[in-house]
Write a structure and sequence with these properties.
Elements lengths: L1 H12 L8 H10 L8 E8 L5 E5 L12 H12 L6 E6 L2 E2 L4 E3 L2 E4 L17 H12 L4 E3 L2 E4 L34 E7 L9 E5 L6 E4 L2 E3 L8 E4 L5 E5 L1 E3 L5 E6 L3 H15 L3 E2 L4 E2 L9 E7 L3 H11 L2 H16 L4 H14 L23 H12 L4 H6 L23 E8 L2 E9 L5 E9 L5 H17 L1
Parallel strand pairs: 5-7, 6-8, 7-17, 8-18, 11-14, 12-15
Antiparallel strand pairs: 1-2, 1-22, 3-6, 3-19, 4-5, 9-10, 9-16, 13-14, 20-21, 21-22
Helix pairs in contact: 1-2, 1-11, 2-11, 3-6, 3-7, 3-8, 7-8
């Protein structure tokens, strides 16, 4: 907040003597700070009602958008499916359920693209969705499965990750593999706490608990006040999580989420474990179903997702990468057959052209913005925002955005300023890139659509976010 005040003071002093073009000069004073001398800024501000461009810098040039790209994907998904659309996860079988409650044959856990098979809506209970499906089987009289539980995610195809996601991203939850069957965001949530005495092993916790992964810890507890140096590794291609280093007495538990390989197999394994806990015996090993499903089968249990309005709100407010990639592939599947990154991108581009946005100079390599090869221009991003402000689902789209000083990725930003509660915008952050895109309500009630992005900066990330926040405060206070 202190750095934001400095930027606002600089912007104010730039107009103290004269104000021929107040907005132009105030914004220029922020963007021309010495810390950004090596960087490139792209900015456009447009009055939503009149269409008048109030400020522009490099607005026709392409920039790396980072997570601000999620606005493109969520807008397209909202247009394609509507706000009340839901996606189904089913338990199916081609086997026979006999009078003794036995299913003779395999059971298929079929992913339909629900991104929230997790504890997100259930106080963190990661397996609650699977418990609900198991309860339906129990009610149907299933007591034993003479076969395997097979996870099926055939709704999606192609690469499970973005084309050029960084190796360092793939271990962590924000770089999780994409799957139509996604339990707990395809991740395990870990906690590491110090032991009671110096030299004790650290205490680890994991959710959901499962035999699918293994935690190997050599980390120990050090004296109170000693510097901690916990290290976590997971080799690509495996699900052994190694924890080493030290954690000091009195330090808060470390928390983090680690991505797991083969998400559909992970989901099938945990579902089989949930069934066992319910007393439903599964005789075969849980596995991944790679062949097409049998033509004749019956649905034993069904679970529907939250409505799309809630799904895109999680994407934009929390900047959830996996969910965005799933939405892209759902659009691809809707367009025709299997959902791939390529078919989803084609669906997005068709949507953009239909609403008057020109994506021909853009480069869309993923849906979430994690790729360092994505490119788009401020002018066309603002055109998207203006078009969505007139869309039949405009209110739902705006409600999905973080609110300055209130929630999402902006909950602690711009508090106590003119922007608080009057700026709704999506953030974007990867190395050397920061962005902010959305709407600001000016003091006269006019709504302004804006996009501001800085590429190739070597300043501290806090400098870049303070500059973006200062710009938003100026718009809200204009």
């Amino acid at each position: 907040m202190r750095l934001l005040a400095v930027f606002l003071l600089v912007a104010a002093s730039a107009t103290a003597a004269e104000k021929p073009v107040p907005l132009q000069r105030r914004v220029d004073a922020i963007l021309d700070r010495p810390a950004f001398a090596p960087a490139f800024w792209g900015v456009e501000v447009r009055n939503v009602r009149t269409g008048r461009i109030l400020y522009a810098r490099n607005a026709e040039k392409n920039f790396k958008p980072a997570s601000s790209l999620k606005l493109v994907t969520t807008a397209a998904a909202l247009d394609a499916f509507g706000p009340v659309a839901r996606f189904r996860t089913t338990v199916e079988t081609a086997g026979r359920l006999d009078d003794l409650g036995r299913i003779v044959g395999d059971v298929y856990l079929v992913g339909g693209g629900d991104p929230n098979l997790s504890g997100r809506f259930h106080e963190g209970r990661a397996t609650v969705s699977f418990e609900q499906l198991a309860a339906q089987l129990e009610t149907a009289g299933v007591r034993r499965i003479e076969g395997r539980v097979l996870g099926y995610d055939g709704l999606f195809g192609g690469d499970r990750r973005g084309e050029d996601w960084s190796w360092g991203d793939l271990v962590w939850c924000y770089g999780a593999e994409v799957s139509a069957l996604a339990l707990n965001d395809n991740c395990v949530d870990l906690t590491v706490a110090p032991g009671e005495r110096e030299g004790d092993a650290v205490v680890t916790g994991a959710s959901p608990p499962s035999a699918y992964y293994r935690i190997v810890s050599t980390a120990t507890t050090t004296a109170r006040g000693a510097p901690g140096d916990l290290r976590l590794e997971r080799d690509l291609g495996g699900n052994v999580i190694r924890i080493s280093g030290t954690h000091a007495i009195g330090q808060r538990p470390w928390q983090g989420s680690v991505a797991l390989e083969d998400p559909a197999r992970f989901a099938a394994t945990v579902f089989a474990e949930v069934l066992a806990a319910k007393g439903i015996v599964v005789t075969g090993e849980a596995d991944l179903m790679t062949a097409p499903l049998p033509g004749t089968r019956r649905i034993l249990a069904t679970l529907e997702s939250a409505p799309l309005s809630e799904l895109i709100s999680i994407v934009n407010k929390k900047s959830q990468n996996l969910h965005t990639e799933m939405l892209l592939r759902l659009m691809g599947a809707r367009r025709g057959g299997v959902g791939t990154r390529e078919s989803g991108t084609e669906a997005v581009e068709e949507f953009l052209l239909r609403i008057g946005v020109r994506p021909e100079s853009w480069q869309l390599q993923d849906a979430s913005g994690l790729s360092r090869s994505n490119l788009l221009s401020p002018h066309e991003m603002v055109s998207l925002l203006v078009a969505m402000d007139r869309h039949p689902h405009a209110a739902v789209f705006r409600a999905s955005l973080p609110i300055a000083g209130v929630d999402g990725t902006l909950d602690s930003r711009m508090k106590g300023t003119a922007a608080e509660s009057r700026v709704q915008a999506k953030t974007g952050t990867i190395r050397n890139v920061n962005a902010l895109a959305g709407y600001a309500t000016a003091r006269n009630g006019e709504r302004l659509a804006f996009y501001a992005v800085v590429n190739h900066h070597t300043a501290e990330g806090s400098d870049a976010t303070a500059a973006l926040d200062a710009l938003a405060v100026i718009l809200a206070g204009s």
